[in-house]
Specification:
The chain has a single domain, classed as C8orf32 fold (Roll), CATH 3.10.620. Helices cover 37% and strands 19% of the residues. It is built from 5 helices and 9 strands, in the order E-E-H-H-H-E-E-H-E-H-E-E-E-E. Helix 2 crosses helix 5.
């Protein structure tokens, strides 16, 4: 199987550099070897790095922070992106038995059109990490086991700030910086 994402909707989208015709979703084939959770975590992390270098994501991230005039600008950049993603995303699970990842460019377009974007945990983490990466933050994706579950079933983000990894769960509106313990799989 190919190792690159395959567009399943949209037309002739040229990649993360293009702001036009961004696909609704991409589906990435799992290679059939190893743990699929590890593959998903790594792919979402790879996409976040790729999209973080996109001119569209960079331009949008700069718009989010353009009015910040403070000595502690890194903290304000962090907070601005975190608040934006928390306020503008709505959790909606993927269809049962499927794993889709929504393009952060498409999610931003939805936010511009409707005021919010829908996605599951990996979509929201991909949007957040892409924006954080565009502003120069190191990020990683972490898979965790939610309480009451016997298997890994949720992804969230860690952002390196002042030398420490800060937890950020864009789907946990009540406590987005909750510190997780227990079974975790890190992208790096």
């Amino acid at each position: 199987m190919a190792d690159t994402p395959t567009t399943i909707t949209g037309s002739q989208w040229g990649g993360p550099e293009s702001c036009q015709d961004a696909p609704q979703r991409v589906v990435f084939p799992l290679n059939g070897f190893g743990d699929p959770v590890i593959q998903i975590v790594q792919r979402v992390d790879d996409f976040a790095l790729q999209y973080g270098k996109s001119g569209c994501i960079f331009a949008f991230a700069r718009c989010l922070i353009k009015d910040i005039k403070t000595n502690n600008y890194r903290r304000e950049h962090f907070n601005r992106v975190a608040i934006f993603v928390l306020e503008k995303t709505v959790y909606v699970p993927d269809p049962r038995g499927a794993e889709y990842v929504r393009s952060p460019i498409r999610m931003i377009a939805d936010i511009k059109e409707r005021g919010y974007a829908q996605g599951d945990c990996d979509d929201c983490v991909l949007l957040a990490n892409s924006l954080f990466n565009a502003l120069g933050f190191d990020t990683r994706v972490v898979a965790v086991t939610l309480p009451g579950s016997d298997y890994t079933n949720h992804v969230l983000s860690q952002i390196k700030y002042n030398g420490a990894w800060i937890w950020f769960d864009p789907c946990n509106k009540a406590d987005p910086r909750k510190v997780w313990t227990g079974n975790m799989i890190f992208s790096k």
